């Protein structure tokens, strides 16, 4: 049995274990229907009772009125026998209890009781008692009083109640199938909503919400000990961009299946983002077991995945954190696992990184630098330095490269190697690049107005800037605002940037060249160059990467010479960067390199120092 096995019933329970709507909707509808019918029946019975009683009362009044008309003469002449004969036909009245005629003094004159025997008088609620005056020419000479039983009324009311009961039963017979169908549909809709609420539709894995709820559930168990693995696919965006989103979805499904197979019963796999997955390993007996699973997961993704468009490799960076060894709660667990994941991606990707406390300091510093960089950018607290570029033979300044610098008020100058990646990841590089371009164009235009000769201005372009639809407008606006001639500006693009989308890159470069702006390929030789594409690129210059220059003259001559020859063959100028030794400069001069830049000849400096250096060089030339 796996050391991670745990009761699945508890683990798979939905949050709150709520009573489903479907389980209550049937009973609720039936109760509501029955209650409604009962209330309606009671109202109808009451109405029927009142109606029947009123009808019986009116009938008794009519009978009393008829008797009063017929006994007028008998009452006037005191003929009791005649009056009795008038009352005798009342034996046909089935509900009659008694009929009595009173004289003008209120004395009983004559009475009739069915069967000849007086019946006990019932309460008013069970009888109907009516009176009718006996008049002669407007003078009251007596009265007639009838007392009726309510037997017929009760029988009629009972029949009506039976009818209502049958009606209710029929209505329920109709309602029940409808309720069952409604309940079935609601239950099906509930299942679908439950699936959508807790399941990722692409991979059928638990989604972000379900994964985090499961994590909270595991952490709440007594003596909880678990490992959280956060996994991010390397270069998944390339698959989406090159093969399409359908291929990306297919890859995600295959990756999900591979993760489930690699994890097995050891834990739960969930998809928490576009190409991000989380793996909860619980319960955890030892840290080494979690590392073994993490390595198995990484290994399962190092094989090619067959897609309709071809095979694709989907390696992943994995960050791991263990509770409670490393952290004390869910928030810290997620944050620390993400920190380890970030370290895995920065460390070259396609690897597993176990969280260490010192990583937190690096993450905190990065978060702090991100906030402070944003504020510095808003306050324009950054500055542009310029590294001179020289003619390889005459060592005359022929141009400058604009480099952004961040003078931090507390920590001094922050290395570009630290804050540029932050700007790239957060998107601030677009605004930062736009500001550098505007500042550099303004400075160089000012130098020209101050009497300096024309110098080329090289400005780096990031991938994020190139993807911005308004980037070309930013470039032309910077030239127009500064009045800098377009032929002085040179945009530096990297090989990898150009090869991401060759067609789009060529279209962009043609627009830039049509505006009179120069183009160069930076760090040439470090990417995946293609000579067939290189001859299609409308560029002006190749820059030999410093990694090759630093090996000169003892090593690297073959690559450096090949790049110089390639540039000459395509009619391009070649610039070597990172020249820090005299021997390197001599070799490059002898090999026919056109231009150089590096600490040997000039470090990056503020705009004012460039002016001062030019003035010093001018005085030296005049003195010579």
Textual characterization of the structure:
The protein is of the alpha/beta class and 624 residues long. α8 (245-263) packs antiparallel against α9 and α12 crosses α13. The longest helix has 50 residues, at 21-70. It is elongated. The two termini are 89 Å apart.
What key attributes describe this structure?
single chain, 624 residues, alpha/beta, five-stranded mixed beta sheet, 22 helices, elongated
Compute the number of strand runs. Answer: 20
Largest sheet: 8 strands, mixed, barrel
Mean pLDDT value: 84
Q: What characteristic shape results from the CA principal axes? A: elongated
Number of helices: 22
- Low-pLDDT sequence parts: 1-17, 120-124
Query: What is the alpha-carbon Rg in Å?
Result: 50 Å
> What topology, given as strand order, has the largest sheet?
12-13-15-16-17-18-19-20
Query: SS-based structural class?
Result: alpha/beta
What percentage of amino acids are in beta strands?
15-25%
What is the helical fraction, as a range of percent? 40-55%
Task: Report, as a whole number of angstroms, the end-to-end distance.
Answer: 89 Å
Topology:
Layout: H1 8-12, H2 21-70, H3 72-77, H4 80-87, E1 96-103, E2 108-112, E3 127-136, E4 139-149, H5 151-198, H6 208-220, E5 226-233, H7 236-243, H8 245-263, E6 267-271, E7 276-281, H9 287-300, E8 304-307, E9 310-313, E10 316-323, H10 330-346, E11 352-354, H11 357-378, E12 383-391, E13 397-408, E14 412-414, H12 416-426, H13 428-449, E15 456-460, H14 463-467, H15 471-482, E16 489-494, H16 495-500, H17 502-514, E17 518-524, H18 531-534, E18 541-544, H19 546-549, H20 557-569, E19 573-577, H21 582-591, E20 595-597, H22 607-623
Parallel strand pairs: 10-11, 13-15, 15-16, 16-17, 17-18, 18-19, 19-20
Antiparallel strand pairs: 1-2, 1-4, 3-4, 5-7, 5-10, 6-7, 8-9, 12-13, 12-20, 13-14
Helix pairs in contact: 2-5, 7-8, 8-9, 10-11, 11-12, 12-13, 13-15
